[in-house]
Amino acid sequence: MRNLASGIPFRDNAVRALNNSTLRRAMRNATETFAINRAEAVAALPLEEWRDQASELRLRVLDNLSDYVSRFEKNATRAGANVHRAKDSQEARGVIASILKDRSIGRVVKSKSMVSEEIHLNDYLEEQGVTVVETDLGEYIIQVAGEGPSHIIVPAIHKDRRQVGKLFAEKLGCEYSDDPAILTGIAKRVLRKEFLSAKAGISGANFAVAESGSIVIFTNEGNGRMCTTLPPLHIVILSIEKMIPSLADLPKFIRLLPRSATGQVITSYTSIITGSRKPGESTGAKEMHIVLLDNGRSQIATGEYREMLKCIRCGACLNACPVYRIVGGHAYGSTYPGPMGIVLTTLLDGMERAHPLLDATTLCGACGDVCPVKVPLPQLLRRLREHRVEEGFTPKMEQRGMAAFGTIVRSPFLFHLGQTAAHLLWPAARRLGPANALDRLPRPVSTTFREKVS
Amino acid sequence: MRIQLFGTCLVDTMFPETGEATVRLLRHFGVEVGYPGGQTCCGKPADSGGYRRESRKAAEHFISVFERTDGPIVIPSGSCASMVKNHYPELFKDNEPMRQKAEMIAGRTYELSQFLVRVLKAHEANLTGKGRITYHASCQLTRELGVREEPLLLLQSLDGAEFVHLPHADRCCGFGGIFMAKLPEVSMALADEKVDSILSTGADTVVGCDHGCLMNIADAIRRRDSAVQVKHIAAVLAEGLR
């Protein structure tokens, strides 16, 4: 008998979000804008062809993942980076903390990274006495608010400018304003000082290029470039499936990712960083460390959910998801929200914790339509629901009901009996049963269609 | 021409008038309608709930009932039609004889609006309608079956009715089968947004091809005390037979 109570309380979280009118308005505005921008950005392009090419390429990488990781490791090392392999979150955090500790660094600037969220890096570093300053504006906002990101590329999507104004006034002691330009200016002044004095910068990476050992970062604010070039030490935290074979493959993703994400034709900054600063070069970190996180991915890459690892973290499926759009990312209680988040969280964290997230989809299929690398999200979600049932993570009542369905559905006699019973017992069932659902359905009829037609 | 009608369990149990409208409509176009008596449910509720074993039992039963018949199988529901066409073959992917049977059945299966347009050319038949009509594009119909144009062609062809496009017509209404029972608050919030869209069109009738969505939407409309009518496409078209 499974204990279902250890799962993420998605329904409670969702109800709380639904009652938050500011959140709902902010979510609606933002996801609507992104969806419209995306549709405009991909119109009149050979999108299907691009998606197929990108999907094939990502599959090729997954087919030979360990080879690509080794090649990346060799080439990045040759370019002057120190590459560390971490099998899980704990190892990855440990490696990063000790690099900082060995150099007595107590304050770092950081560019947005979902993998760092996955390994709970900030909390760990703070425990070790290292102050982490997030420098992406959205990420900075939620750090000041003491929250986690609610979208994989727009971390503060759930907040409106008035909330940010109040937050800054309260926490930073500045004068209240809800003018985005003024608020951005305030953050800029704080962060500029941090950039100039930081001894280390931490970043993630959108892609890692096996052939050259380069890492690639797409950003819009330029903070990524500051974090990776101003401090003398640059630490990259990267999950292994981000590999692409060569730089020649990068344009496929430069054109797909921003268009899918925000509807931009290209992000403001595309940084390709190959190793540490070399003699004669005027910019770049003098010392570079790359932490390659596995955290179960090698295994996922060989299993039936491998296509999930094609994901390039654009967030298009979040913006398209009817459930995500109205409850926001925090309701998922996981690092990664939305359709890709449900699948990835279940694979990374296990069914025991993630099973309630599998309720958070209507299987409407909108996510599958927009995915730029054709991750078959609707199919993966349905398959995970099957695994959930096989592993016993559904309520006992539901299991019994479905077992009864399996018997009734094969017997027209029992089926008809069931219809009659449903008609007769409806008033009682509505009083006793799951009122929330039954109340919304019409009463079964006394004379069914089969009786009328035959 | 003779077809086999799969009524769907929802129509059978809750909306028999839609079944009757479907029969009237098909007969109007000279189609002889068979109704295999042993039919029950396609298994979609078990399938989307993750109950593969039960889903397979439903599929086996459906196949055993319909393999004894000939001709096209017509289903007045996008999600049931998609279950038969897309999911049945997958359910038996490791049982080759059954998979072949499932493929045969899938090949014979049409969703109603698909059959009306592609086979019967009903959109060229000058059916009549009335009022201001809008259309909700249900998820499996649109995205799994790829039936996007057919219902529009039918509704836009109605003489005497005005058709208005629904904003975000193909956005999920929040029904999702088992979803509405498991996350009722989220389901209702989504249905509410759908109703907002419907009301914004000024339509007096919203039409769909799936009773699951339609009853979810009808409930949300009732809660608004709105007079907008919610109708299955079969009912709207049957009303317009001259």
Provide a short characterization of the protein structure:
Chain A is of the alpha/beta class and 454 residues long. Chain A is built from 23 helices and 10 strands. Chains A and B meet through helix 1, helix 15, helix 18, helix 19 and helix 20 of A and helix 1, helix 2, helix 3, helix 4 and helix 8 of B.
Characterization of this structure:
The complex is a heterodimer of chains A (454) and B (242). By secondary structure, chain A is an alpha/beta fold. Chain A folds into 3 domains: 4-40 and 315-390, no CATH class; 46-299, Rossmann fold; 396-453, no CATH class. Chain A is 53% helix and 11% strand. Chain A has 23 helices and 10 strands. Chain A has a 6-stranded parallel β-sheet, with helices on both faces. In chain A, a hairpin with a 4-residue loop joins strand 5 (207-209) and strand 6 (214-219). The longest helix of chain A has 22 residues, at 21-42. Chain B is an alpha/beta fold. Chain B folds into 2 domains: 2-117, no CATH class; 124-239, 3-Layer(aba) Sandwich (Rossmann fold), CATH 3.40.50. Helix content of chain B is 53%, strand content 14%. Chain B has 13 helices and 8 strands. Chain B has helices spanning 9-13, 16-28, 44-49, 52-66, 78-91, 96-108, 112-118, 139-144, 150-156, 178-182, 184-201, 211-223, 233-239; strands at 2-5, 32-34, 73-75, 109-111, 128-135, 159-163, 205-208, 229-232. A 4-stranded parallel β-sheet of chain B has the order 2-1-3-4, sandwiched between helices. In chain B, helix 12 links the parallel strand 7 (205-208) and strand 8. Chain B starts with a strand and ends with a helix. Chains A and B meet through helix 1, helix 15, helix 18, helix 19 and helix 20 of A and helix 1, helix 2, helix 3, helix 4 and helix 8 of B.
